[in-house]
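Worked example 3 (structure in, sequence out).
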């Protein structure tokens, strides 16, 4: 029976694997088993070596007594609907219980550096303790569990919002139903937000849910660490660095959180270069969980939980977590997954990105039948009650453009920049061009490329090798043009110090032909831009994580634009990024619009509110096909269609 079920599952999963990249590489079961055995032995050995009882570990101590948010749920109400005196009483009870446990730890001579306290979504605290003391802590009265804290890496993205709104029907929803997120609040748990950006505003006629006065009152009464910033971003805090610097401003900052925030709710003037997000009149909470130290590329699970804890106190409607760790495991007792469940139970939609790891053994034809668990969906998005989001490609791309002159005739060509150095970093704007074929070292022999841009055709050598050869030859920059139609994301390297640009085939061929004919070619970088069609428009993004979870849940549940998305960056700037991180905010923003309607029409609360919003979006989504097979989860989110369900317009 087991073999029959495994075969059925395997054949079923193959239908979902057709659209992913495959290579000619082969692997045998014996090789995989040998490698797995070596890996397991290595990990086992490492584990033995690191279980030092005196080693400090970061833990969350969870108490047996229910968290305040659970007590509200048991009463059939949401935490934010409780009277201030009721909230205060529940939170004080939790804090007193935690203090009692801490005192007993002190009595037992258990050394601890206390870190975070949770008094809403979890009843407990985090601390650094000796590994050998964990069992003693578990024996203390009223302690339920001691969780080792997970570590999460800072999210990375490759730095068309204007077009992705149409794909999820946001504009049609604004026009036909009038919902733009008024009165709704979305918490962005990420790398930070720049509240001074020109697009981070509310319209004059919008009445905010949170005012400076109400936020200050919440900070005082709820013991919140953050403060009020602007009407659009009424609250923020840097939970990792424990300060008020909520802008992602470290050296080499990705501005990932700012990009996500813009997708959720930017409210710019598109006629004058600004952008609008999915819920432009919603307010955003800047819940910064990654610090500004460039040497610290991670955060911790207790930081996540603390940010969620505080967002519940502020009455958030939706949370966006465009982050996580790949190949997550479903553990219903994990604090992050418990926090997601309890938030959902209190009427908060939690939209989490699926991750950008495709699937286990990506690059091979199919996973082995003997290893059916090959999904690498990220955690905490695999939590049962989250709404996990996959990515598909945007319709258009806004990219940089360079003007070029061939014997006095001027034209323009779009390009993508891969390295950390951009042409705009230079004072000099005009450069000559030298054609160096495929970019082999011998292709540079006898050619003067000093101070010029090297024009290199894609093929045979790696992108980095071509660029490094140009750099070694003294080129000022490298332009690699495609040898087939379409675009690719070029690999780069930290040792590349010159601009590394990618150009479309037609434009590269034109420049190469002119140079081979002996014509003069000059590049002029004048900070121009161009809008080009995305050759993969409408397709599932090749990077998006997929596959069953370890407990056989279907994740992710829904799809949104995540490939080639233009959104806000710090200091009134904008940029393209790709990833499921860019897809999740389309859903949290869209979910805010749907819940706005549900609040007005039905007044739903708690789990019913979130379940209705999720079901509306999933049941009206559009399936994505590839070669005759459905490859999306429920499908591409369509917000306007959610409003059109007959059940919403029936006269009861």
């Amino acid at each position: 029976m087991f073999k029959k079920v495994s075969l059925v599952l395997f054949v079923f999963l193959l239908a979902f694997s057709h659209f992913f990249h495959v290579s000619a590489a082969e692997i045998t079961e014996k090789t995989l088993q040998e490698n797995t055995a070596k890996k397991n032995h290595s990990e086992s050995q490492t584990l033995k070596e690191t279980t030092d009882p005196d080693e400090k570990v970061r833990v969350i101590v969870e108490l047996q007594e229910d968290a305040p948010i659970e007590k509200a749920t048991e009463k059939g109400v949401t935490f934010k609907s409780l009277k201030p005196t009721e909230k205060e009483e529940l939170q004080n009870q939790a804090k007193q219980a935690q203090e009692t446990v801490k005192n007993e730890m002190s009595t037992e001579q258990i050394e601890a550096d206390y870190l975070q306290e949770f008094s809403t979504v979890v009843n407990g605290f985090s601390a650094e303790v000796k590994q050998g003391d964990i069992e003693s802590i578990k024996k203390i009265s009223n302690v339920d569990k001691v969780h080792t804290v997970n570590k999460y890496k800072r999210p990375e993205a490759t730095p068309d919002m204007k077009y992705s709104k149409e794909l999820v029907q946001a504009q049609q929803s604004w026009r036909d139903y009038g919902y733009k997120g008024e009165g709704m609040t979305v918490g962005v748990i990420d790398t930070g937000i720049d509240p001074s950006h020109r697009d981070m505003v509310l319209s004059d006629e919008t009445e905010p849910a949170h005012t400076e006065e109400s936020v200050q009152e919440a900070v005082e009464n709820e013991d919140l660490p953050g403060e009020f910033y602007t009407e659009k971003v009424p609250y923020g805090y840097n939970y990792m660095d424990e300060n008020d610097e909520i802008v992602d401003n470290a050296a080499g900052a990705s501005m990932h959180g700012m990009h996500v925030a813009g997708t959720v709710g930017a409210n710019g003037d598109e006629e004058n270069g600004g952008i609008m997000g999915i819920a432009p009149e919603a307010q955003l909470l800047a819940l910064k969980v990654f610090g500004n130290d460039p040497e610290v590329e991670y955060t911790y699970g207790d930081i996540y939980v603390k940010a969620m804890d505080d967002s519940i106190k502020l009455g958030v409607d939706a949370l966006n977590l465009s982050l996580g760790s790949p190949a997550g495991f479903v553990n219903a007792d994990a604090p992050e997954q418990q926090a997601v469940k309890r938030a959902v139970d209190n009427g908060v939609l939690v939209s989490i990105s699926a991750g950008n790891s495709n699937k286990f053994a990506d690059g091979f034809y199919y996973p082995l039948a003997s290893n059916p668990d090959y999904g690498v969906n990220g955690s905490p998005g695999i939590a049962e009650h989250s709404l996990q989001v996959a990515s598909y490609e945007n319709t258009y791309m806004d990219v940089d453009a360079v003007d070029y002159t061939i014997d006095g005739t001027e034209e323009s060509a779009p390009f993508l920049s891969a390295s950390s150095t951009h042409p705009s970093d230079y004072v000099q704007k005009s450069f000559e061009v030298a054609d160096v074929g495929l970019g082999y070292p011998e292709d540079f022999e006898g050619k003067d490329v000093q101070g010029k841009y090297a024009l290199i055709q894609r093929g045979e050598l790696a992108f980095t090798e071509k660029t490094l050869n140009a750099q070694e030859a003294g080129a000022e920059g490298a332009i690699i043009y495609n040898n087939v139609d379409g675009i690719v994301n070029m690999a780069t390297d930290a040792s590349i110090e010159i601009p590394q640009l990618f150009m479309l085939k037609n434009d590269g061929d034109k420049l190469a032909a002119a140079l081979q004919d002996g014509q003069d070619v000059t590049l002029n970088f004048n900070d121009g831009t161009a809008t080009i069609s995305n050759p993969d428009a409408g397709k599932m993004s090749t990077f998006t994580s997929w596959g069953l979870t370890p407990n056989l849940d279907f994740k992710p549940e829904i799809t949104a634009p995540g490939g080639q998305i233009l959104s806000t960056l710090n200091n009134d700037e904008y940029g393209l990024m790709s990833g499921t991180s860019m897809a999740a905010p389309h859903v949290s923003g869209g979910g805010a619009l749907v819940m706005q309607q549900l609040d007005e029409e039905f007044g739903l609360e708690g789990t019913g509110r979130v379940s209705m919003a999720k079901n509306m979006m999933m049941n009206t989504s559009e399936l994505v096909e590839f070669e005759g097979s459905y490859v999306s989860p429920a499908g591409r989110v369509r917000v306007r269609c959610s409003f059109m369900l007959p059940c919403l317009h029936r006269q009861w």
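Notes: The longest strand covers residues 521-533. Residues 161-395+540-648 form a domain with the Rossmann fold fold (CATH 3.40.50.200).
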